[in-house]
# Entry
Amino acid sequence: MTERSPAPGGLTLVEALVNTLDMESGADALDTAEGRERFGVTAEEADRARTLRESLRATLLAHAGHPPHRDVTPLGALLAEAPLLVTVDAADGSAALAPADGRSLHARVAAAVADALVADTWTRLKACAAADCHWAYYDRSPAGRGRWCSMQVCGARAKMRRYRAKEV
# Structure
């Protein structure tokens, strides 16, 4: 739904996972083999991936100052199960958290969140305020107060609803 550029670093994985569900149409990319393959998820793992996706969406809504869209398993509880390793680059000594199992979606998401925390970009990944959207987007606004994935679509709809409410 958004014309914004993708989130930086590992947050592209988180953004892409949250955006596998089009809330307006109900289309879920995790329903298709191609959509699951993009995340290395089997059909048997799809429900677990959906649980992670909706927990991420609730967290991204919180980043934007909005309540959760529904009851979800807390993200911390889901990521606590993700095995991570500390890696140290021999050339420059830099350290990072990496998935112990590169195939685990939960571990890859946990590593992405950890990297984003270090880079101070985690809270800039948000979910659109529009209830029929909740698309993930990276807020590049100077003040970090973006509310919609697209000002031209979701923002314009919200402003039009407010305008019409004043007319009544």
